[in-house]
Amino acid sequence: MFKFFRRIRFDLMEKNKTRKYLKYAIGEIFLVVIGILIALSINNWNENRKLNKEELNLLSDIKANLISSLDTFKNDSLLNQRDILRYEKIEYYLEKDLKYNVELDSAFGVLTFWSTPYITSSAYKTLQTKGLDLIKNEQLRQEIVRVYEVELKSLVEDYDKSEWSINEIVNDFFSKHIRRLHKTSLVLARPNNFEALKRNEEFDNLLSMIIRQRKRGQEFFGDVMFEMRNLIEDIETELRSREK
Q1: Is the separation of the CB atoms in 134 and 110 below 8 Å?
Q2: How confident is the model at residue 52 (pLDDT cuts 50, 70, 90)?
Q3: Most CB within 10 Å of its CB: which of 30, 73, 91, 176?
Q4: C-alpha to C-alpha distances, 41 to 51, 204, 242, nearest whole angstrom
Q5: Integer Cα distance of 175 and 50 in angstroms
Q6: Stretch 16-34: mean pLDDT
Q7: CA-to-CA distance for 94 and 84, rounded, in angstroms?
Q8: Per-state percent for the chain, helix, strand, coil, to nearest 5
Q9: Residue 24 confidence (pLDDT)
């Protein structure tokens, strides 16, 4: 094709047809510009399609991460609630001045345990690397950032860190007054002197602090799980709308 255009241009120059040559040259330039614009348009279309696919894949991955974390939190919440009931059983025995019963071994065994929140966030980290603007829906983008940077972070920074701080105090008391029944089970323990423990105000204070902390954790887990469910639903809505 380029040979064809060159031949026309050469014939016009040879025949000294300047006006026709200029018209032809302008037309040729116009065709070249149109060709460039078409090429750029196709390239932009391909790039947008690529970014759109990347965005949808990342949203699907974030949704999968959230579902995984949500399932973990549900289990954590159940375990923490079970432990709260065990602690309250110790509290009941103390208040009613009851004799020690081996059913308390499991309750004393978990005094230093709690379910720490583990968050699956690989997809969100990928989004941060690629740029948050990859998510076109601004409201959804802000919601994702809020859940990860505020809700989930508060669960770790506020709740879990305070658990570690309290655990240092509990472990110190535990090592002096409570023995692990490791020959029987790794999760059972028994006080050295339960009757003396009944009159120990420090233990009363520790027990009330532990119960309060676990209940506070349940509130944290509940609030965060509520926000996570809403975000999962919003991501599903976005994915469905983009499939049309």
Answers
A1: no
A2: confident
A3: 73
A4: 15, 73, 22
A5: 59
A6: 58
A7: 15
A8: 80, 0, 15
A9: 52
